[in-house]
Amino acid sequence: MKQRLLLSCILLLAANALAAQTTLQDTIPETVVTATGTEHLLKDAPVQTEVVTRRMLDSYGGRSLEDILSGLTASFAFNEDDMGSQMQLGGLGNSYILILIDGKRIHGDVGGENDLALIDPQTIEKIEIVKGASSALYGSDAIAGVVNIITRKHRQEGLLVENSTRYGSYNDIRQHNSVGIKSGRWTSLTNFNYQHSDGWQNTSVEHTSSSEPPVTDSRNMTVNRHTNAQIAEQLTFAAGDNLELYLGGTWYGKRIYRPSGKYAHYDVHTYDLQYRNASASAGGKWKVNATDVVTFDLDWNRHAYMYYFTATTLVEDYELSKGTLYYPYYPYLPDQTQMQSDQRRTMASVKGIFHLPAGNLLSAGAEYRYDWLYSPTRVEGNIVSDWTAAVYAQDEWSHDFDASHSMHLAAGTRLTWNGAFGVKLTPKASAMLALGLPWRIRLNWSQGFKTPTPKELHYRYIRQMSGTYLYLGNQSLRPQTSNYFSLGGEYNRAGLNITLTGYYNMVKDMITLVTIPNYEAPAEYIIQYDPYRVRQYANIDDARTMGIDLNARYTTGEWSFGLGYSYLDTDANQYDSDHDRMKKVTIDGTAHHRGNCFTSWNHRFSPGYRLGAGLYGRVSSTRYYQIDGNGKGYQIWRIATNHDFDFIPSTDCRLEAGVDNIFNYVDRTPHGLHLGTTTPGTTVYVALTLRFKSGKKIGKFYNTINNNINSNQNEQN
Amino acid sequence: MSRIRIMTAVVLAALTLGFTSCDPIGKNQYNYNTYQKAVNQTVNKNKKNDKAILLVAFGSTWQQAFDAFDSTVEAYKQAFPGYDVFLSFSSAICINRAAAGENVEPRNFYAPPFWLTAFAQKGVQYKEVVVQSLQVIPGEEYTRVINYIKDFANNANGDLDDDYLANVELKLGTPLLQDPEADVKATAKALNDLYKSQAAGNIVAFMGHGNPDSYDTYKANIRYTQLEEALQTLSPNYFVGTVDMMENFKTHVYERMAAAGLNTSNKKVYLHPLMSISGDHGHNDMAGDDTPEKFEGKSFTFADLLAEANEEGEVEDCSWKVFFGANGSGFVCNDNTIIDKGLLELPTVRQIWMNHTQAAIDGEPLDYYHSKNPEE
C-alpha cells in the first residue's frame, strides 16, 4: 500500500513538473448555460460552473456517467448497487441533485436514486455542473446542485450514421448507434443503445455477527449482472424562419439479475429487478426577433419498476378490478412480473429570454408539473399524486467598466405553488466581478425548496438484506428549504485556470431515513413482517454542509493537466425529544476529502493518425454512514488511450483502449456493510467508433432546439 | 376522412391492447391453482395416515432455525405415529427464501391456508387435522393461526368440499405459555432443569419477543412477567425481558437485577432467546454487536448507554450483549455467555408444545375465542 502511495505521489509530481515546463497558451472559450438558463462564456458566468468537455470525455473513455463524473471531477461520489448509483454531491444525495438532459429533468427513481444508465455516454456533448441551490430556475430537487447533460445534435444536411462498440472486462458491452438525417426542413435523429455487464463479486463473505457461523461462499454480487437498452427518436421541423417544432420519444428497459446461493438468510433471491421507461415530448422554439426567444415544451415520462420473479414467490397483492381485494399470500410464478411503482410525470413549460434596454437580460417562465404514482403493494390506496405550478423571473445585468473590468449581476425568484404544501418564494442572487486580468470573483446566494415526494410521504415496503428491513413513509413530513452561499475566486491566464470556491449550504427540515424503534411503527406491520430494523423518512431539524472546492486546469499545446480537490464537512442535528437535546445525525456517505487529477497528451503523427493518451487518478477518504459501517478510503488510477484514423473518406474512425484501476484496488468488505467503492479491480476496455457523415454543415439555429447552447466551440478544441 | 377514421381505430385498438395486456384475465386463479397444485402434490406424496398435524410458526431464514424445525417435525413423527406431520410458516418472506436457492433442497414451509386446502383435497381428506401453534405466547400471531382455522372451517373461499368440512375433526394445539399457571410453571421447570448450574451464582436472562403495546389486545405479554415470577421461585437469578413489550426492555430487566442487588459482584449474565427458534432477534438484538452510533469505535461506559435510553426506557441500536457487558454494568456478558438455542431446540420445552398437541387430540375443546377474551 505504501509503495502504491509513493508511486501515486511520483505520478502526481511528474504531472505537475511537466505542467511547469510547458508553454502557456490560451484555451478556446467555453460557453455554459446551466447557471442562469442563458448562454455565457464560461469565464463570464455569474455562477461558478464546472464543465466536462467532449474532449475530456473522448480522452477518458468512460463507460458510464458514474464513471465519467467520478473520474473527471472531485465533486461526486458514487456507490453503485441494486438500488441505483448512490450519487452524492456536496454531501447530499441523489434526491437533492437535479439531473437535466438538455435542460429537462430526468424522471423516475428507485429508493431516491435515478437510474443513470438512461444516459448513454456516447450521446453526451458536454456536462455542466453547477453546485448549490438552483430552485429559482429549476424548482424542486436542485438543492445540492444541477448536472446538465448537453447531448450531441445532428447538424449536417444529409446523413449521419454512427456506431460505437465498447467492450471491457466482465463482459461489459456498450453499444451505441445513431442515424441522423437532415433534409430540407426536417431533421431526424434516432439513437439506440445497448448496455450489458456480467457484474462482479468482490467478496463471497457475508457480514455475520459473532454468534453466527461464518458465511464465506455467498453468491451475492458486488454489482449485479444487468442489461439495458434504449431507443430514442427526435424529429424536428423548421416551420418557418423563426419557428422550430419538435416531437420526441424514448423507450428504455433494464433488468438487473440476482443470482441465488444456498443461504436463505443471505443470498437467496426470488426475483430480479426490472425497469420500463417511456417518454414523449413536443415543443418548439420561437425566435421573436433577432435577440429574443420563447421556448415551449410538453413532456410526459413514465418510470415503472417491477419485480421479475425467478422462483415461485408469495407476496401481498391487491386486485383493483374487484374492489381492491387484498391477498396476503398471492403466488407469483417464475417469469411473471409484479409492479412495484409506476411513476408518471406530465410537465408543461414556457420560457422566454428577452433582451431589455440598459444591458438587462430577462428570463421568465411558467411551469406546471403533475406527478402520479401507482404502487399497489407499497402505497395505501394504490395511487397518490401531486402537482406543482410555478412562475419565475430572472434579470441579468452586465456592465463593462473597461477592457478588463466588468460586473455581471443576476437575480431571480420563483413562486412555487404545490398542491399539498402551499406557496413558497425562492430567490437567488449572484454576482461576478472581473477585477482586471486574470482575476475574477463570484458571489452567490440562492434558496432551495423541495417538497416531500409522494414516495417519502406514502411509501411502505420491505427489503430483505441480512435481515428484514421495513421502510416507512411519513405523512407528517414538512418541505425542505435551503440557503446556499458561495464565494469563489478564479485565476485565468495563458491556459491556466484555477478556481477556488467555498460554500455553505444550510438545509432546514432535511428529509432523511432514520431508524425508529419497532414500537413506533404500525403494530400490524411489526406482527406481519417482524422486521429487524424499521427505517422511516423524517425531517432533520438542522443540517449544514460546507466545503471548499479547488479546480485547476492547464492546457498547453498537446498537453492538458487537471487537478480537483473537494473538502466537505457536514453537521446534521435532529431534536431528541426524549432527552430535550439535539442529536447528531450522520449524513450518509459523507467523505471529508475527495480529489482527482489527470494529465493527457494528444499528438498527430500523420494526417491519417492522431494519438491521445491520459493518466487519471481519483482518491477519497473514508465515507461515513449511520448504520452498517463506514466505507473505506481509496485511490484509483487509470490509463486511457485513443487513436483517430482518417483514412476512410467521410468516415471518422476512432479506437479507444485503456486500463482502469491499474493498481488493482478492491474493497473486499463483507456484504451487508458499506463499501468505499465498488470497483472490481483492474479492468481493461477497448472501443471502436465509426462515424459516417455526408452533406454539409448548416447554421446553428435549427439544431439548438431545447437548449440554448452553442456547443460547436467545444468540438473545435 | 376515411384515413383519419382508420388511424383513429388503429390508435384506439393499440391503446386498448396496451391497457389490457398487463392484466390477463384469469391470471389470479391460474397462479393460485398452480401453486395449490404443488402443495397438493407435496401432501399426496407424503400421505401415510388419515390424520395430520400442521405445525405453524412465524418462520425464519436461518439455517439453525431450519434445523430446529426439521428436528421438531421428526420428534412429532416419533411421538404421533398415526399422524402425518407438516410444518407451515406464516411469513411469506421466510416461505419464499426457504423454498428457493441454488444447490439446496427446497424447503416447503407453505402458508397455512395452502396446507389446509391440500388436506381437504379429494383423495386426501384427512379425517382429523390438528393445527399446532408454535408460538410462545397466546398473542397476535396466535390469533392469526386461529383465523386460518376459522377461514378453513367456514370455507371462506368457497372452494372446499362442504361435506368434508362438516365431518373433519379440527383441533387446535395451543402456544407454549397458553395456561398462565400450568404451562408457565412447566416451562419454568424445564428451563431451570437445563440452566440451574448457570443460575447458581450467575444470572440467566431470557429474551422474548413480546407484542407492541398498541397491539397487545389479548394481554398476552403478561406471560413473560409470569414466567419470570415462576422462574424466580426456582432461583432469583432468572429474568425474562423482551424486544417489543413496553416496560420489559433490557433496561427494565437491568433495573430488576439491580433492585435485587445482583449488579455488584461481576456475575456472568447468560443470555438465551425465549423464542421458538434463534433467528434475527437472537443473533442480532440479543447476541449481536450493535452499539449506538455515537459510541461506535469509542470507549464508553454502561452509564453512557443508560443516558441514551429513550422515553420508553429502551436504549436503541444496542444489543443485550453489548448492554449487559458494558464497562460499569456490574456484570460480565460476552460471546462466552451466549446460549444460542431456540426453545424448539430444547427437547424438554418442546415436549410442552407436544403435550398441547396431545391435549387437543384428547378432546380439549376447540375454543376459537380463547385468545380473543382479554384477561383481566
Descriptive notes:
By secondary structure, chain A is mainly beta. Chain A has one domain: Beta Barrel (Maltoporin, Chain A). Helix content of chain A is 8%, strand content 56%. In chain A, the strands form 6 sheets. Chain A has a 22-stranded antiparallel β-barrel. In chain A, a hairpin with a 2-residue loop joins strand 7 and strand 8 (104-105). Residues 9-27 and 697-717 of chain A have low confidence and may be disordered. With 376 residues, chain B is of the alpha/beta class. Chain B has 2 domains: 47-176 and 348-372, Rossmann fold, CATH 3.40.50; 182-275 and 288-337, 3-Layer(aba) Sandwich (Rossmann fold). Chain B is built from 14 helices and 8 strands. Chain B has helices at residues 2-20, 27-46, 63-79, 92-99, 112-119, 140-153, 162-167, 182-199, 222-234, 250-259, 280-286, 302-307, 320-324, 347-361, and strands at residues 51-57, 84-89, 128-133, 169-173, 203-208, 238-242, 267-273, 331-332. In chain B, the strands form 2 sheets. In chain B, strands 2-1-3-4 form a 4-stranded parallel sheet, with helices on both faces. In chain B, strands 6-5-7-8 form a 4-stranded parallel sheet, sandwiched between helices. In chain B, helix 8 (182-199) packs across helix 9. Residues 6-26 of chain B have low confidence and may be disordered. At the A-B interface, strand 18, strand 19 and helix 6 of A face helix 2, helix 4, helix 6 and helix 11 of B.
Instruction: Label the CATH architecture of chain A.
Output: Beta Barrel
CATH topology of chain A: Maltoporin, Chain A
Would you state the CATH class of the largest domain in chain B? Alpha Beta
What amount of the residues of chain A lies in strands? over 45%
Strand-helix topology:
The complex is a heterodimer of chains A (717) and B (376).
Chain A: H1 2-21, E1 31-32, E2 40-41, E3 49-52, H2 54-60, H3 65-72, E4 76-77, E5 88-89, E6 92-93, E7 97-101, E8 104-105, E9 124-131, H4 135-138, E10 145-151, E11 158-168, E12 172-183, E13 186-197, E14 226-238, E15 243-256, E16 271-287, E17 293-309, E18 313-319, E19 325-332, E20 337-356, E21 360-374, E22 383-400, E23 405-418, E24 422-435, E25 439-450, H5 454-458, E26 460-465, E27 467-472, E28 480-493, E29 496-516, H6 523-529, E30 533-556, E31 559-576, E32 581-585, E33 590-591, E34 593-606, E35 609-620, E36 623-624, E37 634-648, E38 651-660, E39 683-694, H7 712-715
Parallel strand pairs in A: 7-10, 27-30
Antiparallel strand pairs in A: 1-2, 3-9, 4-5, 5-6, 7-8, 9-10, 11-12, 11-39, 12-13, 13-14, 14-15, 15-16, 16-17, 17-20, 18-19, 20-21, 21-22, 22-23, 23-24, 24-25, 25-28, 26-27, 28-29, 29-30, 30-31, 31-32, 31-34, 33-36, 34-35, 35-37, 37-38, 38-39
Chain B: H1 2-20, H2 27-46, E1 51-57, H3 63-79, E2 84-89, H4 92-99, H5 112-119, E3 128-133, H6 140-153, H7 162-167, E4 169-173, H8 182-199, E5 203-208, H9 222-234, E6 238-242, H10 250-259, E7 267-273, H11 280-286, H12 302-307, H13 320-324, E8 331-332, H14 347-361
Helix pairs in contact in B: 2-5, 5-6, 8-9
